[in-house]
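Database export, one record per block. Field names are fixed; values are copied verbatim from the stored entry.
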Amino acid sequence: MKHIHNAVGIKYLPKTYLIEIGAISAFNKSIISNDKNHAKKKEYDTSLITKVATPPTFSRFLNPGEFETEIDNPYSNRLDGGSEWHYFKDITHGDIMTISGEISRVKIKNGSLGDMCIVTSNFDYVNQKNELSCTQISTIIYYNFSINHKINLTPHTTKIKQKPHEIPTTINIGYLNIGDALPELIKQPSTQQLVMYAGASRDFYQIHYDQQFAQAIGLPTVIVHGALKSAFLGQMLTNFINESANLTRLLVRYNSIDFEGCVMKCKGTITNIHTTDSKKIIDCDVWIENSDGIKTTKGTATFKLN
């Protein structure tokens, strides 16, 4: 057995999944369930069932196996610190995906939650053709709750007054310039949506749906999954690029907590436009703002024009 402080290099046992349309559909629904236009869409259109797009962060559904070496982890609580995805091949209905990975970094620090152990893991997602579909670098923050480090944040549950911006269905690269803003996407996740995402992503940590548990560890109420915030930004990006481009990279870091019922504004701006192998490459900054204008989540993304 190794202590978690000395866990660098420990591998996860590979695990294989058959990707079913139900899992993709449930993941999609958990992300868009509170959207105003979601209720207007037809559900279970059998003519489109094998064409459901896999969300960019779907790999969070695909957990690796146990550690090959048992780890002594004395920390009782955890928070998602962020993830970086690189995309090479779409994950689609019927694929057989194998996930492998290892712990690549462990950092010990003292912060707002007291003593923290920050663990970074690298994962590869390989399909039945031995093609690398995507990679993920995931960071988890482990800590022990202390009443001396109670999280003194107040949820902002202001109701959405403005309507979400209309999302263009196509891109005309001639009209894209550095500094241009991406169409804003507004979210206000309910506890029901958090429960849906917990099931769809198989992240059942109680701080996301159990009020009593959340309050027992110093939170005023349940909090939004970090990975769901990444999924919201992924939705904003894929809505914007539609079929005109492919998302090739998404990096997201969580700077502050967002609570259920809070207004979350997903935003982005174009930061760079260049050409590689005759393809236009677009880089952008992306983020989520709360109702006070604080950027609780920051990231970057890259997409390649078709």
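Remark 1: The chain has a mean pLDDT of 88.
Remark 2: The radius of gyration is 19 Å.
End of record.
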